Amino acid sequence: MVVGTAGCTQESETEVSTQTQTTLPTRTPSPYVEQADEFRSFLQQEEISIVELLPQPPANAVELTYVSNEDQYEEVGGEIGTIAGGFFNRVANGWEAERLNAVVMDSPESRFGTWYAKSSWFEEYRDGEISSNELSLKVLNTLSRAEDA
Length: 149
Fold this sequence. Notes:
Layout: H1 2-18, H2 31-45, E1 49-56, E2 61-67, H3 77-92, E3 99-107, E4 110-118, H4 119-126, H5 132-140, E5 144-145
């Protein structure tokens, strides 16, 4: 019985030693993630204080949380326009994101409000169905004050 066991052990060692290791290919970021990185760079150039930027490829959504540079709720419109414009620019360049969901903070601990932008609105603008003012109003009309603000 000892010889039988020794033979099995030897056979197992041989099988293990003949297995080849496969190296996995280096992952390249998806175009979706690359566009999100470009969007992040744009926001940083515009001095938007990003708390979190999460591209959600399966849902084709982008979740952005940022601290506003504005002090008053009524003053965030220009900032929203800048951020939405950056999002629409990425969509124009092939980003397949369907929606940008933004959470505006007035400090890193305090939620100020929320707003969103849809790529379908930009497509309506690009197709001449709505004006740039109408596009801006669609986005601004989504702004809602946070319950705790």
